[in-house]
Amino acid sequence: QEPFVADEYIERLAWRTPGGGSRGGEAFDPKRLLEEFVNHIQELQVMDERIQRKVEKLEQQCQKEAKEFAKKVQELQKSNQVAFQHFQELDEHISYVATKVCHLGDQLEGVNTPRQRAVEAQKLMKYFNEFLDGELKSDVFTNSEKIKEAADIIQKLHLIAQELPFDRFSEVKSKIASKYHDLECQLIQEFTSAQRRGEISRMREVAAVLLHFKGYSHCVDVYIKQCQEGAFLRNDVFEDAAILCQRVNKQVGEIFSNPETVLAKLIQNIFEVKLQSYVKDQLEEHRKSDAEQYLKNLYDLYTRTTNLSSKLMEFNLGTDKQTFLSKLIKAIFISYLENYIEVEIGYLKSRSAMILQRYYDSKNHQKRSIGTGGIQDLKERLRQRTNLPLGPSIDTHGETFLSQDVVVNLLQETKQAFERCHRLSDPSDLPKNAFRIFSMLVEFLCTEHIDYALETGLAGIPSSDSKNANLYFLDVVHQANTIFHLFDKQFNDHLMPLISSSPKLSECLQKKKDIIEQMEVKLDMGIDRTLNCMIGQMKHILAAEQKKTDFKPEDENNVLIQYTNACVKVCGYVRKQVEKIRNSMDGKNVDTVLMELGVRFHRLIYEHLQQYSYSCMGGMLAICDVAEYRKCAKDFKIALVLQLFDTLHALCNLLVVAPDNLKQVCSGEQLANLDKNILHSFVQLRVDYRSARLARHFS
């Protein structure tokens, strides 16, 4: 039995044998165990022979049955082949019979068709004869329930009557036409009643009959008219139209054989009657009186109409539904879109001017005329070349005449104008119209607001020799920088998508570049003059606070201060200006302006120190002052400025160093590369320079 394990089998056999279960024990009997194993092996051999004989017998039986099965399969194949031959013969016979039947059917049809036509013609002649006699006796004309059959007959008689000569059959033609018209009216009335009752199947039957009548289009018109009854009760005509079309789209296929034509005619009726009337009422009210509301309504109505058109694109309206719907929209709005951009530009111009004027009025400021032409251009060129203020300085009282609220309002108006332009402009006119809107933005934001503020700011910068001057131009720079970032963002976000693939792109980029360069020139000019004023203020502080006795005290042994009062005030002033510059600018502009201020600051201190004579203790005080100036220069975080003050500090060491060490100090790392005249000029500032010993050591 499976699973069979030989080792376990031997173990079980040994345990069952008396004397074979205890190895090495007293009861263990190997002879007994050997005898048991030999007997068991013999039994297994006998069993194996018996099983082998049984297997051979089964194999012989299997071979015999296989031969019998093969013989039976051969017999079945033969019978199957015979059956297949019979089936082929039967199929050929059926095909032959079918051919005969089809031929017979064709013959019968050939005989029956003329007969049916003759019967039909006989019936029509009978009905025609009734019209000729002037008395309609047939049940089909008198029974109202057989209106469908009557309609079929009268439609055929009407076609026949049109072929008859008028002079001989004028009366009967008139009667047939009259009956034709009456039945047509009855069918349309029946269709109308069925529609009111909501009987779709009856509507389908009547529509199928009317399909061959001239009044079929009138039936469609009636259906369209009744569909709209009670459909436009809410204020949202566009949503009502969409719901109506969805409902009709589900129904029209069950009634008419040409549902796409009927649905298209319904949509055309909605656009030409309902929507056109609604749009006209909404726009004409504000067209001449309120340009802002007119443009908002035009944008809103056009957007909602195109959205409705997108929903209707889901329906089957024929082959070119896109063109069909576009023509309907164009027919509604063409009179408003033709001059849209002129209205837009006119409104934007007046609105922008009003925003600016309202701002200046709130500041009680009468806007000065910057002016153009020969004299102004000459002044501008002179100012750019000389950087001198031309004309009287204006006290702005700290007002920058720049307002982020004004800028946000102007940008918001322009953003809405760009959105309207994108929606309402013809694709071919879109870049041109967008450029015109951009030009308005440049005119009012950049020229009338930012540029005017820069001009006013420039005029408000005091001369460099003014005392206690208030410097507000850096506030103008800070606000102008912020505003221009907003201007640039709108340029990229709202204008670029409208002109990116047109020749107007290069024109807009050039216009933007020109206005940037124009403003940068004025900003550079104003910053330069502001730096001059800062240096002027420092000069006034030094002139007022620095005394000659600071560096040549009367009592050399009783100097109690670490640095002079002039140094303290100058450093305090400089630190305030550095912080103001950092707050007013960003990026590399901060480093550029601070480096320029630092260089001028260094030149001022250098020239200032050249004006005094220095005793030994005065020289030490000068070194302390320069050390404080150098500490102040670290706030600039400009390597060049710090290097200049390091060199100046080293030069000041020449004021106190012992005569014997002068040459060694001059050849030091910081002073070795300086011109000898510069070193000499500092040595000459020493009180003891005239002594022969000092002059000899330095020569």
From TrEMBL:
Keyword Coiled coil carried by entry: yes
One GO process term, biological-process aspect: Golgi to plasma membrane transport
Keywords on record: Coiled coil, Exocytosis, Transport
GO cellular component, one term: exocyst
Coiled coil: 41-79
InterPro entries attached to this UniProt entry: Sec10-like (IPR009976), Sec10_HB (IPR048627), Sec10_N (IPR048625)
Domain Exocyst complex component Sec10-like alpha-helical bundle: 149-698
Name of this chain's protein: Exocyst complex component 5
Lineage: Eukaryota, Metazoa, Chordata, Craniata, Vertebrata
Gene (UniProt): Exoc5
